[in-house]
Design goal:
The complex is a heterodimer of chains A (about 120) and B (about 230).
Chain A: H1 2-23, H2 30-44, H3 53-61, H4 68-72, H5 74-81, H6 85-123
Helix pairs in contact in A: 1-2, 1-3
Chain B: H1 2-7, H2 11-30, H3 37-51, H4 56-68, H5 70-76, H6 78-83, H7 85-90, H8 92-117, H9 121-127, H10 134-144, H11 148-172, H12 178-200, H13 202-227
Helix pairs in contact in B: 2-3, 2-4, 8-12, 8-13, 10-11, 10-13, 11-12, 12-13
Classes of the chains: A mainly alpha (about 120), B mainly alpha (about 230).
């Protein structure tokens, strides 16, 4: 029975996300509103983690499968890119590597600088 | 025989899941990034459809039930985030700083590439939201006058690429902190990157989930400024 109840709660929050998307005129998907709603509910204690934990662990584990259908759709959209296909691929490769590197390096730099500060403080 | 496959409700899902499982098996056996289960699955499914001349729409008719779960699964990403909330509070500044740097870098590199290759305004804005989650990216592309269907294709390509190259990029840039790895994956390659982050670890997964939302919203705010540049 617990799986049904957990699924019910998750579907409710997904639906509430869709309601918010309908009401707020921003290009933000229902899933992001839902994520923020669920996080708020957990943080405020309105919803206990055990009430959704098992089903959410299952859904997150099978998440990569959910991208397969859309990714296979690439076989149809290639033609629309026509003459600029190679340039687009180069742009995607360069930009993805650089973005991943920069965001990771900046995050790591700030973390280490702050840790150093706390260490100095404890030494003093 | 062919009709049986085409009419079956389970064929699409079965083909997707079995090729993914084969990818998992290959990865376990050879332990190289090339055998990325998602990549293997996508290539094999495309191969099967081409060889047996099955239309994408026929495959999608069954396989769409996998995509159907994407919204509730994304909602559930709040769970790892909640479990790591202490870490989030402690490193708030670093996380937001890293995501913002990534969002700006994404827009700048696309602007530079578009200038070099001489893309039109429409082609340029189609690529601008490539690193953020599909649903936000489609909206941004449409609003700026891009081709939303191409944006979706480019976003997915970015995600798969990020998923495959993550470990190599972390070595190249010497990214060792779990929080930084998560931010890097979520900011550069959205939910498909987050699937990878979940594999690496709980902290990485949580930070990556957070980055999808934050990077998406930041891009909504900044992309229109960049759109006017070409």
């Amino acid at each position: 029975m617990k799986y049904i109840k957990q699924l019910l709660i998750i579907l409710c929050i997904s639906f509430m996300g869709e309601v918010l998307k309908y009401l707020i005129p921003l290009p933000v998907p229902a899933s992001i509103y839902g994520l923020l709603l669920l996080l708020t509910a957990l943080l405020t204690g309105v919803l206990k983690l055990e009430k959704i934990k098992d089903v959410s662990v299952f859904l997150i584990e099978i998440m990569p499968l959910m991208f397969i259908p859309a990714a296979v759709g690439l076989m149809d959209s290639w033609s629309a890119l026509g003459g600029i296909l190679v340039q687009v691929i180069i742009t995607v490769v360069v930009s993805t590597i650089v973005v991943m590197g920069v965001s990771g390096v900046v995050t790591q730099m700030i973390i280490r600088r702050e840790e150093q500060k706390t260490n100095e403080r404890t030494v003093l | 025989m062919r009709e049986l496959f085409c009419d079956s409700v389970f064929f699409g899902v079965l083909l997707s899941v079995s090729t993914y499982e084969l990818g998992v098996f290959l990865k376990k056996k050879y332990k190289t990034a090339v055998f990325n289960p998602l990549l293997i699955s996508v290539l094999l499914v495309i191969g099967v459809l081409l060889v047996f001349r099955i239309d994408y729409n026929v495959y999608y008719e069954g396989a769409k039930y996998l995509s159907y779960l994407l919204t509730p699964a994304t909602v559930c990403l709040a769970v790892p985030l909640y479990e790591q909330v202490e870490l989030l509070k402690r490193h708030g500044k670093a996380i937001v700083g890293g995501i913002f740097a990534g969002v700006l870098t994404s827009l700048v590199t696309i602007f530079v590439c578009a200038s070099v290759f001489g893309f039109t305004h429409q082609e340029y804005v189609t690529l601008l939201p490539k690193s953020i989650t599909t649903a936000i990216g489609m909206g941004v592309s449409e609003e700026l006058g891009g081709m939303a269907t191409i944006t979706v294709a480019v976003i997915i390509l970015t995600g798969i690429l990020g998923n495959i190259i993550a470990e190599a990029v972390f070595r190249l840039f010497r990214i060792e902190e779990a929080v930084a790895k998560g931010v890097a994956l979520g900011t550069s390659s959205h939910a498909i990157g987050t699937a990878k982050a979940m594999e690496i670890g709980e902290v990485e997964g949580a930070m990556s989930s957070l980055s999808i939302a934050v990077a998406g919203l930041m891009t909504v705010a900044v992309a229109s400024v960049f759109a006017n540049l070409i």
